[in-house]
Amino acid sequence: MTDTPTPAPEADVQDFADMSAALTGFLSSVLKPALDPAVLARTYYEFALKHGDAGVMSQLMTAYRAIKTQAPQQIADTLLETATPDPTKLSQTAYLAQSIVAMWYLGSWYPPGVLGGGGFAPVPLQVISSAAYTRGLVWRVMQSHPMGSSHFDFGYWSLVPKPLSTFGVNTGNGGGQ
């Protein structure tokens, strides 16, 4: 008999989605929709807990909860430590926040604090899932789709692109609440 891990509480997953909205600039309702067959917010939260440092994740979530009433851009700037003049001197929570942003955009896990070389990102630890890859936020920002997977109608490329707000990007106040 194998032990299955206890799923994360829904309130924690919602806080993670809300924090991720501030970090990514997307609406929380896009990251964690009411009807969500892919359950990416839960998948990402539990993946980060398992593959990151659970203690650092706890610190990051505590830091977010302490400032969650601020404007999304202020939340992102604080958690990502954008005011730090030397990016190699960030805290472990800021590195984890960077990995979470990459996870949402690219559907892959990049170990916190691991830097690439020559201007390139490091090799990801792993692609989280096919759903994570095909639903990565990068495709929404580019108003595109991964090769072989499209939710657009045939001939969409002949039309003028819609504004980013129709793809769930929070274009109103600089962040994603």
Q: What can you tell me about this protein's structure?
A:
By secondary structure, the protein is mainly α. Helices cover 45% and strands 2% of the residues. The chain has a two-stranded antiparallel sheet with strand order 1-2. α1 crosses α5. The longest helix is centred in the first third of the chain and has 15 residues, at 10-24. The protein is globular, with a radius of gyration of 17 Å.
Keywords:
mainly alpha; 177 residues; 8 helices
Précis, in short:
The protein has 177 residues and is mostly helical. The chain has helices at residues 10-24, 28-31, 40-51, 54-67, 72-80, 92-106, 130-134, 137-142; strands at 108-109, 126-127.
- Structural class call reads mainly alpha
Q: Termini distance?
A: 42 Å
Please state the oligomeric state of the protein chains shown: single chain
Largest sheet: 2 strands, antiparallel
The helix content, as a percent range, equals 40-55%
Low-confidence spans: none
What topology does this entry show?
Layout lengths: L9 H15 L3 H4 L8 H12 L2 H14 L4 H9 L11 H15 L1 E2 L16 E2 L2 H5 L2 H6 L35
Antiparallel strand pairs: 1-2
Helix pairs in contact: 1-5, 4-6
